[in-house]
Amino acid sequence: MSSAAGRVIPCKAAISWEAGKPLVIENVEVAPPQAMEVRIKIMYTSLCRTDLYFWEGKGPNPLFPRILGHEAAGIVESVGEGVSDLQVGDHVLPVFTGECGDCNHCKSEESNMCDLLRLDYNRGVMLTDGKCRFSINGSPINHFLGTSTFSQYSVVHSGCLAKIDPLAPLDKVCILSCGVSTGLGAVLNVAKPKKGASVAVFGLGAVGLAAAEGARIAGASRIIGIDRSSKRFEEAKKFGITEFVNSKEHDRPIQEVLAEMTNGGVDRSIECTGNIDNMIAAFESVHDGWGVAVLVGVPNKDAAFMTKPINVLNERTLKGTFFGNYKPRSDLPSVVNMYMNKKLELDKFITHRVPFSEINKAFEFMLKGEGLRCIITMEE
Questions:
Q1: Separation CA 223–CA 218 (nearest Å)
Q2: Could you read off the pLDDT of 212-242 as tens digits, one per residue?
Q3: Is-above-0.85 flag for pTM?
Q4: Alpha carbon of residue 10 to chain centroid
Q5: Can you say whether residue 197 is alpha, beta or left, with left for phi > 0 and alpha for psi between -120 and 50 degrees?
Q6: Residues forming beta bridges with residue 270, ordered by sequence position
Q7: Could you give the CA distance from residue 315 to residue 305 in angstroms, rounded to a whole number?
């Protein structure tokens, strides 16, 4: 065990004290891990749009003060009672969802939606005892998604940590713990296009471009990007996008445009915006007989998906996905290996880098729509 095992570790963390206000770097105390928990040293983290959403206070039941962050890579510092599959020094990716290994979902080959460790936006404490592991002068600081990676040290449930190849560069593979894996898996695990297939991707942010990367890896012959910003097309070419459709430039449903472009519809479509109209268009744009549409983006909770039943009866398939259908502990190591084997390209997703002391710059980049992923180096 490390020299600090069993003791509180003082470190720096970026605290979100109130909605929309810049994060403040504070001295915090990180308690030792309890049963089935692991304390990790965060080496690199990045900003995901989900962090931005909750920082703005838009999520249900906003919790402040809170340590945000959930895309990261780190090294195990110490482990709690009952943890047998991780040890000090292991390189890990913390993930916002988990894999307990015992529930029906974990035992199923078809699901990654663990009953115990499923995504929970509202929980600001650890599952073990309902308490926070972060504090400032004895006052608790709320956790976020069970990860809270905007801290130099964090405590995470062992089921939410994927042990990875120690040779993998942590400043690159850290982006695999959320958005990139979500888009990639939506294609490779759910849509499963055949070589030579046509694939439409709705929304060319980081998740959509990861879906394009998946289509490229799968050998798709046509990868059509749909977005409202034409300036994204040049960048999207790096990810395999072969054609671009600006939905603002058409006065008819985009599904009609795609059907005309592809002689009846695309073989696969991936919806990454969460806009309900795009979701319906993605489904109605796939070819009858074999087309498959996969919904990735999260819609407004009151949105209703409406289409004519004949669109389903004519053998179109609609699927949804959560985290690209990857089981965190079982599957993420193989995704890291895809990068190590040069099958998956990650460098092109990383457009900015800042030291931890300048973490608010990452928020500025995202608010301005600049770049894809900003890597934050925790050690300065």
A1: 11
A2: 999 999 999 999 999 999 989 999 999 999 9
A3: yes
A4: 28
A5: beta
A6: 201, 294
A7: 18
